[in-house]
Amino acid sequence: MAAKDLRLNQAIRVKEVRLILDSGDQDVVSIEDAIERANQAGMDLVEIAPQASPPVCKIMDYGKYKFEQEKRLKESKKKQKLVKLKEIRMQPRIEKHDLAFKTKHIIEFLEEGNKVKVTIRFRGRELAHTELGKDVLIKAIDLLNEKEVGFNVDIPPKMEGRFMSMILSPKNKK
What we know:
Blueprint: E1 16-20, E2 26-30, H1 31-41, E3 44-49, E4 56-60, H2 62-79, E5 85-90, H3 96-111, E6 115-121, H4 130-146, E7 151-160, E8 163-170
Parallel strand pairs: 1-4, 5-6
Antiparallel strand pairs: 1-2, 3-4, 6-8, 7-8
Helix pairs in contact: 3-4
């Protein structure tokens, strides 16, 4: 449950609550008694499970609890890696050197941990020969295999209007 959904102290509007003590014991007490115990301890009464009957509450330092939650959230965001989708565009009638040059860029993107969308744009009468575009994409895959780059073909070559594209992703490093 998110910290902002929790009710505390006088915001808890029930007659009885199940109070969880520091020792782990549970006690069903009146709300006034639970708030009094929290005040004596110099802490807050926090409603943990409002759906329970009677609702479950715990005596804790709410400010410290919120701080710890935010700290954990920041820590988890630090460990996340954003995977970007990079795009490489080609023509169906591409020269060998140009294909090798574009493949070098694909390798760089994959090594950085990004996904790569390789797109071939068909213009005019080229649209009648889509198999040429598929051959170019297969040649690109062959070049990547020759260079021993670890990758997966997420989406094999397919037509989308005037474009044929495929999506490659880096293999997970273990």
